[in-house]
Amino acid sequence: MTNPTDKPKPPRRRRSAGLPAAISTGAVAAKASPKSTVRPAKVDTRSGAMRMAKFAVGQVVRHRIYPFRGVIFDIDPVFNNTEEWWLSIPPELRPRKDQPFYHLLAENAETEYIAYVSEQNLLPDATGIKPRHSQIKEMFRESQNGQLQPRFIQPH
Predict the structure, then answer these.
(1) Which of 26, 66, 84, 117 has the fewest CB within 10 Å, making it most exposed?
(2) Summary mean pLDDT of the chain
(3) How far apart are CA 87 and CA 84, in angstroms?
(4) Is 85 helix (H, G, I), strand (E, B) or coil?
(5) pLDDT at residue 16 greater than cutoff 50
(6) How far apart are CA 153 and CA 120, in angstroms?
(7) Residue 26 three-state SS
(8) ∠ CA 44-94-103 to the nearest 5 degrees?
């Protein structure tokens, strides 16, 4: 059963072979690059204070545990998926809900997909290799210095 305050996500996620359901649909996070042109979202913490999300829209990040990476295209200040999705993550890997969650155009060696990842599970991707996800060109343009800039941003 889902919490009535949970906003359902559209059924756009594909599962990657070999990953738990929640991980393959995107539970990961990363740190914002100083070169990023989009300012990271402010996030409410348990204390009610505001802080900045570590990563920004357009930033390339990788998962801390699983072998995938992606481009951030949206940020939720706190967990905003179904309880069923959250409970599908193994308890020893289950992230806190009171942190930013990032929507990624994700990819691994085999496929491309949409991922939903907690900040605690993301790291900056330092490979310098451009992501290949087929939807990047729809959502981003590349600046002269190689950074991905969103074509449009809608504040929440």
Answers:
(1) 84
(2) 78
(3) 5
(4) helix
(5) no
(6) 24
(7) coil
(8) 60
Segment 58-71, tens digit of pLDDT: 999 999 999 999 99
Question: Is residue 89 exposed (0-12), middle (13-18) or buried (19+ Cβ within 10 Å)?
Answer: middle
What does the alpha-carbon distance between residue 80 and residue 101 come to, in Å, rounded to a whole number?
8
CA gap 123, 47 in Å, rounded: 25
For 15, 90, 137, the CA distances from 56, given in Å and listed in that order, are 24, 27, 17
**Boundaries of every domain in the chain:** 21-126+134-140
Structure tokens at 56: 């920004």
The alpha carbon of 111 is separated from its chain's Cα centroid by a whole number of angstroms, namely 17
pTM of the shown model: 0.71
